[in-house]
Design a protein that fits this description.
Blueprint (H helix, E strand, L loop, with lengths): L1 E9 L4 H12 L10 E6 L10 E7 L2 H9 L1 H14 E10 L1
Antiparallel strand pairs: 1-3, 1-4, 2-3
Length: about 100
């Protein structure tokens, strides 16, 4: 199994903006078949080193991760929205 984690810093880190990003990310559930599990969380601490939103996706293997990265819904809706909404992001992918 692969865990794909992305942390986002948003241009607007208001609670409303974080909630919208969370909804967009969670909208992949049921639309992106490679996803075996998904969690999205919003930061409440708001420290200078905090990121605003975290995405955690569980996938079967590296091949599923590649397919996920190229999934039409993921690319045209989710990536498009998040690229416009974010100032920065970091990611890590690892086997579990």
């Amino acid at each position: 199994m692969i865990k794909h984690i992305v942390c986002f810093k948003l241009k607007d880190n208001s609670d409303l903006s974080k909630q919208k990003a969370k909804e967009v990310l969670l909208s992949m559930e049921g639309r992106v078949p490679q996803i075996k599990g998904i969690q999205v969380g919003c930061d409440f601490l708001k420290s200078s080193r905090s990121y605003d939103v975290i995405l955690e996706v569980l996938l079967d293997d590296a091949s599923a991760l590649a397919d996920y990265q190229n999934n039409p819904y993921h690319c045209s809706v989710v990536k498009k929205y998040m690229h416009e909404a974010r100032t920065d992001s970091v990611a890590v992918d690892y086997e579990i």
